[in-house]
Amino acid sequence: MLLSLSTFFSAAPEAATLAPDDFVGISFWVISMALIAATAFFFLETQRVEGKWKTSLTVSGLVTLVAATHYFYMRDVWIETGSTPTVYRYIDWLITVPLLMVEFYLILAAITKVPAGVFWRLMIGTLVMLIGGYLGEAGYMGVWPGFLIGMAGWAYILYEIFAGEAGKISADSAPPAVQSAFKLMRNIVTVGWAIYPVGYFVGYLAGSEPAESANMLNVVYNLADVVNKIAFGVIVWTVATSQTDSKAA
User: Fold this and answer.
1) In this structure, are residues 75 and 12 in contact, taking their beta carbons and an 8 Å threshold?
2) 31, 83, 140, 178: most buried, per Cβ within 10 A?
3) At what angle do helices 165-173 and 116-137 cross, to 10 degrees?
């Protein structure tokens, strides 16, 4: 873990000067530090949990580590240029969001046999959501078509974890602690992830000025990222430690 963190810090670009009134830049700094702290916590806690939960907790740490690495680059792009680091953000999401979806599969796989189709359906929904959003934000297609494609991918994910096979496996086979964690993770995907399309809509579809849109979008996306990614890991950590402690009791 120490080697990974040292590699991360050496890869980060030279820090730019942060203006005291640059609240977007401040949000990048605060969130990058929170993500690093969460990474250290999740990796250390893998030593505490039962073997079958180690992969889930390791994935949580990888999510926050990858996000923190990108945030160190994104904050400098913003501070130095004042422009939105769209490409960095979507590269981050292209790695971390599928890993978050994998967590649904992993916590179910820790307690029962889960068909591979669950994994692939979650991946398909994730890629459709991200690709649609990126094409709209980067200008490769109209913002409305990009928005609608992204929303379709999100709806597909919600269907799978509520009414699809993943939701049914949780309801039928999971013990109460895992069911509770699964429901909390579903709530994050439903409520927490709703922040992203709201930010997209207000930033690109509500007629705001470009500078105002950039400020608003970055603050919204930053806050959503730190809450959603760290909260996912905390939920996984909670169920992993509770299941481990119950076995030890």
Assistant:
1) no
2) 31
3) 140
Q: Find all residues with CB under 8 Å of 20, minimum gap 6, and list them.
A: none
Write b or e for each residue in 218-243: b if 16 or more Cβ atoms lie within 10 A of its Cβ, otherwise e: bbbbbebbbebbbbbbebbbebbbbb
Provide the CB-side half-sphere exposure for 69 (13 A, CA): 19
pLDDT tens readout for residues 73-127 = 998 888 888 888 889 999 999 999 999 999 999 889 888 888 999 999 999 999 9
CATH architecture for the domain at 2-241: Up-down Bundle (1.20)
Dist CA 79 CA 98 (whole Å): 29
Q: Is 164 helix (H, G, I), strand (E, B) or coil?
A: coil
Q: Can you tell me the distance from the alpha carbon of 18 to that of 237, in angstroms, rounded to the nearest whole number? A: 34
Which SS3 state, helix, strand or coil, does residue 85 take?
A: coil
Instruction: Provide the 3-class DSSP secondary structure of residue 132.
Output: helix
- Sequence letter at residue 44: L
**And the tokens for 216?**
């608003």
Report pTM. 0.86
